[in-house]
Amino acid sequence: MQVIADALRASDLPRGGVVTIGNYDGIHRGQRAVLDLVVGRARELGVPSVVVTFQPHPLTLLRPGEAPVPLTHPRQREQLLAGLGVDYVLVIRFTPEVAATPARAFVREFLVERLAVRELFVGSRFVFGHRREGDLALLRELGQAYGFAAFGVDEVLQDGEAVSASRIRRAIAEGRVEVATALLGRPYTVTGIIVRGDRMGKRLGWPTVNLASDNELLPAEGVYCTRIHFPSFPATFDCATNIGTRPTVYENYQRVIEGHILDFSSDVYGERAELSFHKRLREERLFPTVMDLSAQIRRDVEATREYFAPRRRLEQEKATSPEPAGS
Which residue in 187, 155, 134 sits closest to 311, CA to CA? Predict the structure, then answer.
């Protein structure tokens, strides 16, 4: 996949492709419905699949107080899009000039003259252009005039409500990570660097790793069943992770992401890691003594082990099963 930054100024853009436009933060199930159509249709036609997106989020400029916290940082979003088979991501820098561009001018000057778009897929409620004057009806009208086809994709529903980035953000902020998993189609994941902590976990008998997160949005404070992946290791490891200030051992301490990796003893300081959230076990709380805290950590670790045991068995069975004949 090729990422073209500052696409409005780029000289070499893909032409004649199947295109979609949107913020695509999170790459959740609703957005996947559009992206799968774009990629599939592009392959049928033998043309590029193209995602046009904006950086930063338009609300950062238009209404800063309402700008959402991103579900994914740019690197994560690119990796997710690449995994779906997207050929090109065109990033438009959202500036006051872009915000003031009339919808018809954007279609004519960028989609038609620069991209020679062949087919365009957007969400059925998609709006764009100055004062949000452009919508699916306008795209269809202009498609007839300029020779491209525009299609709207209906929202994906979960429990009778549309899957949306705002709904996912709310679930994560409240610690409802299993709900977020259902809406995203995968566990919510943060990435970052493993940094040295104060070794309090080791003194309690439960050595931990601390993650300096790239992501702004973190689940609510509490203890979670998580899985951690290091690019330098072939496996993914189960982990009991606490997000919080550790009130039993500190007062007014900074918020940390600290996890005990089950059955793991390697030195990973300074390495990048991906931490995915699968289940919330409990809230963070103050214990009478550090011995009580240590006993609770033991219970959290065992609960994490039990939670992931069925998955581990399936993974082991898959790893040891013979390859099908003729594969």
Answer: 187
- Of 233, 238, 230, nearest to 270 by C-alpha is 230
CA 85 vs. chain centroid, Å, equals 16
Question: What's the per-residue H, E or C state across the chain?
Answer: CEEECCCCCCCCCCCCCEEEECCCCCCCHHHHHHHHHHHHHHHHHCCCEEEEEEECCHHHHHCHHHCCCCCCCHHHHHHHHHHCCCCEEEEEECCHHHHCCCHHHHHHHHHHCCCCCCEEEEECCCEECHHHCEEHHHHHHHHHHHCCEEEEECCCEECCEECCHHHHHHHHHCCCHHHHHHHHCCCEEEEEEEECCCCHHHHCCCCCEEEEECCCCCCCCEEEEEEEECCCCCCEEEEEEEEECCCCCCCCCCCEEEEEECCCCCCCCCCEEEEEEEEEEECCCCCCCHHHHHHHHHHHHHHHHHHHHHHHHHHHHHHHCCCCCCC
**Contact indicator for 18, 50 with CB cutoff of 8 Å:** yes
pTM confidence score: 0.90
What is the full per-residue pLDDT of the chain (327 aa) written as tens digits?
A: 999 999 999 989 999 999 999 999 999 999 999 999 999 999 999 999 999 999 888 888 888 888 899 999 989 999 999 999 999 999 999 999 999 999 999 999 999 999 999 999 999 999 999 889 999 999 999 999 999 999 999 999 999 999 999 999 999 999 999 999 999 999 999 999 999 876 666 666 688 899 999 999 999 999 999 999 999 888 899 999 999 986 666 655 678 899 999 999 888 999 999 999 999 999 988 888 888 888 999 999 999 999 999 888 887 777 777 766 554
